[in-house]
Amino acid sequence: MAAEAAVVRVAVRVRPLLPREALRGHRPCLRSDAATGEVELGRRRFRFAAVLPEAAGQAAVYRACVQPLLRAFFRGFNATVFAYGQTGSGKTYTIGEASDEQGIIPRAMAETFRLIDENDLIDYTVRVSYLEVYKEEFRDLLQVDTASKDIQIREDDKGNVGMCACAQATFLPML
Ligand SMILES: Nc1ncnc2c1ncn2[C@@H]1O[C@H](COP(=O)(O)OP(=O)(O)OP(=O)(O)O)[C@@H](O)[C@H]1O
């Protein structure tokens, strides 16, 4: 199956060495080829749907990995973006960075509201939840004083997954 048609696409982002790593004399150990989607680690080669090399900025990551999903989302498809990697590999930076180098979440939210604004014929309701799961503990990042035990993830009879904060009896479907 062509990579673009696959239901799950895996992209790899190579982050640059951090100043402290460079100071310790660390060296890059991966060779990546954005044109073929291949990375080489020693004598092993891996192929991904997309490779974002060190020089790729946040906008390029968003364009390659998220923008097409958002377009599909507005045509009625569910979409999930999942950042996976060892500690310090750049998940938080890629997903959430809120400075000049905005990550995926602020870019996706801005584009969501832009696309909503462009369409006067449909009324949209946007609900957002922002949840951290760490070692089986939940944290509601929009209401940080909610106790972990009061947050539950539920599935309704249509398979929609939502977060339920019992203390406030609210039900917030995840975007
Ligand atoms: N593409 C990048 N360009 C520049 N700096 C980056 C990049 N990716 C990550 N960093 C920096 O690398 C450090 C580690 O990144 P980050 O905190 O995002 O990792 P993480 O995968 O979320 O780690 P953890 O699982 O421990 O929370 C941070 O200082 C971050 O600013």
TrEMBL record:
<feature type="binding site">
    <location>
        <begin position="85"/>
        <end position="92"/>
    </location>
    <ligand>
        <name>ATP</name>
    </ligand>
</feature>
<comment type="similarity">
    <text>Belongs to the TRAFAC class myosin-kinesin ATPase superfamily. Kinesin family.</text>
</comment>
<dbReference type="InterPro" id="IPR027640">
    <property type="entry name" value="Kinesin-like_fam"/>
</dbReference>
<dbReference type="GO" id="GO:0003777">
    <property type="term" value="F:microtubule motor activity"/>
</dbReference>
<dbReference type="InterPro" id="IPR001752">
    <property type="entry name" value="Kinesin_motor_dom"/>
</dbReference>
<protein>
    <recommendedName>
        <fullName>Kinesin motor domain-containing protein</fullName>
    </recommendedName>
</protein>
<dbReference type="InterPro" id="IPR027417">
    <property type="entry name" value="P-loop_NTPase"/>
</dbReference>
<keyword id="KW-0206">Cytoskeleton</keyword>
<dbReference type="GO" id="GO:0007018">
    <property type="term" value="P:microtubule-based movement"/>
</dbReference>
<keyword id="KW-0963">Cytoplasm</keyword>
<keyword id="KW-0067">ATP-binding</keyword>
<dbReference type="GO" id="GO:0005524">
    <property type="term" value="F:ATP binding"/>
</dbReference>
<feature type="domain" description="Kinesin motor">
    <location>
        <begin position="7"/>
        <end position="175"/>
    </location>
</feature>
<dbReference type="GO" id="GO:0051231">
    <property type="term" value="P:spindle elongation"/>
</dbReference>
<dbReference type="GO" id="GO:0005875">
    <property type="term" value="C:microtubule associated complex"/>
</dbReference>
<dbReference type="Pfam" id="PF00225">
    <property type="entry name" value="Kinesin"/>
</dbReference>
<keyword id="KW-0547">Nucleotide-binding</keyword>
<keyword id="KW-0505">Motor protein</keyword>
<dbReference type="InterPro" id="IPR036961">
    <property type="entry name" value="Kinesin_motor_dom_sf"/>
</dbReference>
<dbReference type="GO" id="GO:0008017">
    <property type="term" value="F:microtubule binding"/>
</dbReference>
<dbReference type="GO" id="GO:0007052">
    <property type="term" value="P:mitotic spindle organization"/>
</dbReference>
